[in-house]
């Protein structure tokens, strides 16, 4: 059963039509690739889903509830987390602290409890630390939890972004070019990690230009070109689709 459904999403910026009638869905435990040339509208889709942009028309629903028009923190609280094309870590904080910030989206302690350091607040703080440590371990960063993010190698920073998203206890993760800048070995390790994410019942919508990663891990693929969905289907269907080949390579 699909839990994220986009229907006829259109986005206009003044006279520019960024997306036109884009419709697709994402189901539990599934990895869907969102591909297309630069400027095709892929990140715009992410921004609509996560409340950064408001769709000009069309609807997006999650678990049967409309999310179109919600604020980013409201979308996150519903279980949708994301990473970014350009790394957006808190560079002067440790890896553990970066994850704890995400886990605080699940915090129930109010201002008074935090100030007074009540027993319930202390228990919750330990729970947040534990969940954050688990997210780092899951992404192979357990030994780096006390390292400042800015000091981590680039590939580790990419993995830390995913760990931070996982720390928010999502049901869906949107990964925006997670393999960008990684070497082939790092890309293979990333594919393995994403596969393990789906084992947790978390579904993944992924924008990616590395076709080895896309074809190697995605259950289905959606293709955009100039804001229009030109194809969707299984990886082998997309590989042989003439419209997709033309969009990427020219006729």
Automatic annotation (TrEMBL):
Residues 4-251 form the ABC transporter domain. It comes from the Bacteria. GO terms for molecular function: ATP binding; ATP hydrolysis activity; L-isoleucine transmembrane transporter activity; L-phenylalanine transmembrane transporter activity; L-valine transmembrane transporter activity. GO terms for biological process: D-alanine transmembrane transport; L-alanine transport; L-isoleucine import across plasma membrane; L-valine import across plasma membrane. Keywords: ATP-binding, Nucleotide-binding, Transport. The keyword Glycosyltransferase does not apply. SUPFAM superfamilies: P-loop containing nucleoside triphosphate hydrolases. InterPro entries: AAA+_ATPase, ABC_AA/LPS_Transport, ABC_transporter-like_ATP-bd, BCA_ABC_TP_C, P-loop_NTPase. GO terms for cellular component: plasma membrane. Pfam families: ABC_tran, BCA_ABC_TP_C. CDD domains: ABC_Mj1267_LivG_branched. This is Leucine/isoleucine/valine transporter subunit ATP-binding component of ABC superfamily. It comes from Pseudodesulfovibrio profundus.
